[in-house]
Amino acid sequence: MSIFYTEEHEWIAVEGGSATVGITDYAQAQLGDIVFVELPASGRELSKGGDAAVVESVKAASDVYSPVTGQVTEANSALEEDPSLVNSAPEGDGWFFKLTLADPAELEGLMDAAQYKAFCDGL
Amino acid sequence: MSDEEPADIIQTLPLDDWHRERGARMVPFAGYHMPIQYEGIMPEHLWTRESAGLFDVSHMGQLFLTGDGLDAALEAVLPSDVSGLTEGRQRYSLLLDENGGILDDLMFSRFPGGIYMVVNGATKWDDIAHLHEALPEEININHLDERALIALQGPKAVDALSRLAPGVEKLVFMTCGKFDLAGTEAWISRSGYTGEDGYEISVQAEEAERVADMLCAEPEVKPIGLGARDSLRLEAGLPLYGHDLDTAIDPAMAGLGFAIPKRRRTEGGFPGATTVIKHLAEGAPTKRVGLKLAGRQPAREGAEIYAGDMLVGKVTSGGFSPSLQAPIAMGFVTAAHAATDTALQIDVRGKRLDAIVVPMPFVPHRYVRGS
């Protein structure tokens, strides 16, 4: 499994032709207490960089973008019951959705863990 | 090159370093770097509701007005009873334009020798210009920009503050006085904008760090950011200028009729009096209401409010209530849809969320009132 990161602070864990997407620990820390997550429905086609989800904190709503083009296969229903999973386990149980990759070559433009860490350190 | 400073220069306030040392996340607000949060809005909000939070509100404008004929002059500007305000008492009031639209909301108090006034940070320069224009020359407007303003809010604020400034426990809601606060003269009122019991404390800027340190050394007190101040005031049903109040809104629409006493409604003589008195007597065309949303998704400022297919209003403040663990909002709707229990829908990114009109405050006020 390979994990990639975007400059918009999403992570994508890829295994074969499918992937899991969420927001990074850095992102959840910036957002603060998360109270609601609006997730894409199964079957929805997402485009790279396009709107995929909305994450709401006490104070504000933020868009979450899809790191790649693909079709949603599953949304994390656990977030409906407990949105704070995004705060407590952003890169684990707090994942947002799974999708099938339309074009694995799109991953090449994303950052690996070391690059992403350097990116955040520079912010 | 111009001699004038660019309008977007962001200034620092007396407690800037103090906030940063305590890990605050600083953001530009009303022209100043301000602490938005320390450990997080949710825990800071809940701490204030159960203990005491220290808020730096030094960005707000503190004015002291003096001069012969001050009361009458102020009554030509404010729709309040100024002449009946005795020493040590404080009132909420409004600056209105000629149509009754709200230019700002404010607090004013009678101190020996004059009237002390606190106005909003983002509007203070406009307010000062407005007062200069509206008041006669004999009235002196002193902008106390050498003073800091600290709000200590929450049910245990009285315990913490009375140890350092004995006597403040005797104040009741909307009264004030000058106190010795650990060796410095502090102007303290029992008021605030969170719905909790608490105090606002004005001290000389050079004393602000020492005072903030001493207050935070009390076990009940933690520093709290403006993020939680906003969620607290929303739960308390208190409107915020620039969001719930502006020049398109008059006091009757905003549900602020309590700020205009009977004498002023009868006599008039304040800006916009004709419209305001008419709306107070006959009912305003739109009204500020509280809304409780179904589900967990909040509706934010600007979201449109519908009754079926009919657009009936707009959300002016919305968020997730940490105390109620549910989304709440404040907004303006047409009078026909403003009654408690009216079922409405709010458009959030194309999705209609069910909402219901509820009485405000969402969380009961805990002011300590006199008998």
UniProtKB/TrEMBL annotation, chain A:
The modification N6-lipoyllysine is found at residue 59. GO terms for biological process: glycine decarboxylation via glycine cleavage system; protein lipoylation. Residues 18-100 form the Lipoyl-binding domain. GO terms for cellular component: cytosol; glycine cleavage complex. Keywords: Lipoyl. Binds 1 lipoyl cofactor covalently. InterPro entries: 2-oxoA_DH_lipoyl-BS, Biotin_lipoyl, GCV_H, GCV_H/Fam206, GCV_H_sub, Single_hybrid_motif. Its cofactor is (R)-lipoate. Belongs to the GcvH family. The glycine cleavage system is composed of four proteins: P, T, L and H. NCBIfam families: gcvH, PRK01202.1. The glycine cleavage system catalyzes the degradation of glycine. The H protein shuttles the methylamine group of glycine from the P protein to the T protein. PANTHER family: GLYCINE CLEAVAGE SYSTEM H PROTEIN, GLYCINE CLEAVAGE SYSTEM H PROTEIN-RELATED. This is Glycine cleavage system H protein. It comes from Sphingomonas crocodyli.
TrEMBL record, chain B:
It is an enzyme of class 2 (transferase). GO terms for cellular component: glycine cleavage complex. SUPFAM superfamilies: Aminomethyltransferase beta-barrel domain, Folate-binding domain. GO terms for molecular function: aminomethyltransferase activity; methyltransferase activity; transaminase activity. Its EC number is 2.1.2.10. Keywords: Aminotransferase, Methyltransferase, Transferase. GO terms for biological process: glycine catabolic process; methylation. It comes from Sphingomonas crocodyli. It holds the Pfam family GCV_T_C. This is aminomethyltransferase. It catalyses: N(6)-[(R)-S(8)-aminomethyldihydrolipoyl]-L-lysyl-[protein] + (6S)-5,6,7,8-tetrahydrofolate = N(6)-[(R)-dihydrolipoyl]-L-lysyl-[protein] + (6R)-5,10-methylene-5,6,7,8-tetrahydrofolate + NH4(+). The keyword Transferase applies. Residues 287-363 form the Aminomethyltransferase C-terminal domain. Substrate binds at residue 200. Belongs to the GcvT family. Residues 16-262 form the GCVT N-terminal domain. The keyword Transport does not apply. It comes from the Bacteria.
